[in-house]
Structure formats: structure tokens, C-alpha cells
């Protein structure tokens, strides 16, 4: 229903939560296609999802933005996204 009115911005909250691998692939492909002409804000706690579909990461911890940049920057150096996430949220 969110697409019926052809919005310029889509807000997706955990779009692949509870989906099987085939459905997850289909939703990711849909997001990639829509991102060509729309702004998509995606909320997720699944870092693999971020890597699969996002070009930019905004990480909020305890109500504060602790990171805002490209996915590649999140994994700068020898760090994985998981390691960087833990560093930025104080869990490292």
C-alpha cells in the first residue's frame, strides 16, 4: 500500500524480518529497484541487511547519531561492520 501513491520517500521498518531467504532476496531486489528513483529510509538491527541494500549508514545509539557515512566507511581499515558497530555503541 505504501507504493500506491508513488511517494518520493519510503520508510521501511525491518522490511525482511521474518522472511525466508527467497523472500528476503525478492525484497532486497525491490528495494534496489525503488532506490533508483526514490529516497528509502530503512530501519534494521540486522547488519547484513545494511550491507546488502544500503549506500549510507546513520547509526543512532541512545538517541544520538554516532555515525553518518557510507557503508564502506563503516568498515574502514581492518574492521568489520559488526566490530565498528560494537565500538560505536560502547559494547566493544
From TrEMBL:
Tell me one Pfam family matched here.
Answer: AAA_21
Note the Gene3D superfamilies from the entry: P-loop containing nucleotide triphosphate hydrolases
Occurrences of domain ATPase AAA-type core (ranges): 3-47
Presence of keyword Nucleotide-binding: yes
Q: Which UniProt keywords apply?
A: ATP-binding, Nucleotide-binding, Transport
Record-level Gene Ontology MF annotations: ATP binding; ATP hydrolysis activity
Q: Which InterPro entries match?
A: ATPase_AAA_core (IPR003959), P-loop_NTPase (IPR027417)
Similarity field? Belongs to the ABC transporter superfamily.
Listed name of the protein: ABC transporter ATP-binding protein
Amino acid at each position: 500500500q505504501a507504493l500506491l501513491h508513488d511517494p518520493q520517500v519510503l520508510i521501511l521498518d525491518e522490511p525482511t524480518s521474518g522472511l525466508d531467504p527467497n523472500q528476503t532476496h525478492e525484497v532486497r531486489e525491490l528495494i534496489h529497484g525503488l532506490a533508483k528513483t526514490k529516497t528509502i529510509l530503512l530501519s534494521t538491527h540486522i547488519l547484513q541487511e545494511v550491507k546488502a541494500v544500503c549506500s549510507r549508514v546513520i547509526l543512532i545509539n541512545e538517541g544520538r547519531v554516532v555515525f553518518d557515512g557510507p557503508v564502506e566507511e563503516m568498515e574502514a581499515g581492518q574492521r568489520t561492520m559488526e566490530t565498528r558497530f560494537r565500538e560505536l555503541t560502547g559494547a566493544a
